[in-house]
User: Fold this.
Amino acid sequence: MYVELKHINKNYGNFQASKDVSFGIEQGKLVALLGPSGSGKTTILRMIAGLEHPNSGEILIDGKVVNDIPATKRGIGFVFQSYALFRYMTVFDNVAFGLEIQKVPKDEIKKRVLELIELVGLKGMEKRYPNQLSGGQRQRVAFARALAPNPSILLLDEPFAAIDAKVRQELRSWLKNMIEKLGVTSIFVTHDQDEAIEVADEIIITNKGRVEQKGTPIEVYQNPKTAFTASFFGQPSELVDYKQFNTFKDLKNVDKVFVRPEFVKVTKKSEQQFYKTSAVEGVIEQIFFRGNTLELVVRVGDNVFTARRGLDEELVEIGEKVDIFLYRIFVTSGDEAHLVQNQSIREESLVI
Ligand SMILES: Nc1ncnc2c1ncn2[C@@H]1O[C@H](COP(=O)(O)OP(=O)(O)OP(=O)(O)O)[C@@H](O)[C@H]1O
Ligand SMILES: [Mg+2]
Assistant:
């Protein structure tokens, strides 16, 4: 493991912002820290950078404990949000900043800075000031500035937070390609699940100062191991009374039940219903057009949840009665979560 945290605890006064945090990151990987606000993501990043110090536990970089190594000696680049550019410095001077501090010779600085500005696609803009750039361009400058001293680790704290959706999308793939090309081990913080899924090699889910789960996006998506991850990842809806679905009968130790939109089959009354005995009637309460799908808010008894239908299917209307079938659900008991399949899929497909 190139970056390793071992049993890290961090207090701010009486408040514990990191609780027994342990994880490792392999060299060259791009890892996302994903979790709700206040779950301790920035705290973790700042401790790796050496800007905060853990109360206990060890941080290792390339096999060496770095707890007592100051931030400037850790070989880390940090990208903050866009306002972190120096407003009164040009693009060139912003990117050169770290190298100036290291007293790198002027001609070397010039070469490296121009190279980086070209790399991030801002050639010709060296003399501009941050307020003469778009949000996306500013983030590219911040990225070039962090890379200038050739860090072995790059940390990015919500790098796209201040940027509008379209540019954000472009920057995501740009960042992923860039990091792959450079091979620099990178950790980025995000609130945005889609961003984490799309960009990261691995996702670390944080909640209340703890690490809930770590894995590839697909592993974590398909197999949430903790109650929190099941309740947080993949647009889950909580079912207040799963018994109203007449299906999942013999569950034991159920604390909460969640469904994701892709677990729900919505069938119009006029359409053929494959799962006759285990479908229940529901009502469409809201419809949102999401570009390539329709997102539906459906009610079955006291349960209100999100489902989807494709645009190639016949349209449904608000107030329309439909049949609802759940392929599967997530059940949580205590801190754990597991997936329960609807048994009637097997039984009824035998009849058909
Ligand atoms: N310097 C500090 N002094 C006291 N409490 C702090 C300090 N920094 C952070 N905290 C607290 O620690 C907790 C974790 O903060 P942190 O900034 O790591 O969260 P985060 O996951 O990055 O949240 P966000 O997504 O909102 O940025 C929060 O409850 C925060 O209020
Ligand atoms: Mg934060």
